[in-house]
Amino acid sequence: ATVELGATYTDAGATATDASGTVTVVTTGTVDTDTVGTYTLTYTSTDASGNAGTATRTVNVVDTTKPVVTVTGDNPATVELGATYTDAGATATDLSGDMTVVTTGTVDTDTVGTYTLTYTSTDASGNAGTATRTVNVVDTTDPVFTSSANFTAAENQTAIGTVTATDITSVTFTISGTELAITSAGVLTFVTAPDYETKTTYTATVTATDANSNAATQNITVTVTNDESDDDSGTSTGTGTGTGTGTGTGTGT
Question: Whole-prediction pTM value?
Fold first, then answer.
């Protein structure tokens, strides 16, 4: 007979016949269902003349049940890109006693993606139970502008300056409107060289977008300064008039 470790064993017993009439069967031996092993039950019947007949049954206590592995904490779990991931682990229970859980798999928090950790526990009979955790590395952090929102630039040229922003991934820049332009690297210019006498202030909205589509905006103001060396210059002439008097002497005859 076979019984699972930890289960209850109910013996089916035995019967005996004898020419002398009804006889009784006595069972000896025990089965410890808390311990894997092979056990023997002996059935004995003795008739009125003292003749004893016996039979035996072998009972195998086996363990075919896998440990139950339970994941601790969130599953799936989420960690921000660039952060430190500390796994909560897992626990395992089994009738054979205290269990050890081995974790396999890695989580690369420097790369957005989905990762799987596997927890395995093996009991003394070689039965292995497993459980898994999904860990999602995500990027939900917007870029942060590190350059000023205010720029100054001289008239009659297109250069302005550079917009900067920090993020754990690469950042590209775009700008609103048609008067100012910006490269993906953040170099800010006028589309057309400004004239101080025509317009002195330009505004636009710059958007910084990281590699995972997180975006931040900054309203910028560019103030045009006067290039005095470019002012018109001229010359003038004038005339003047004046009067004078004189005296003279003479003799006559």
Answer: 0.76
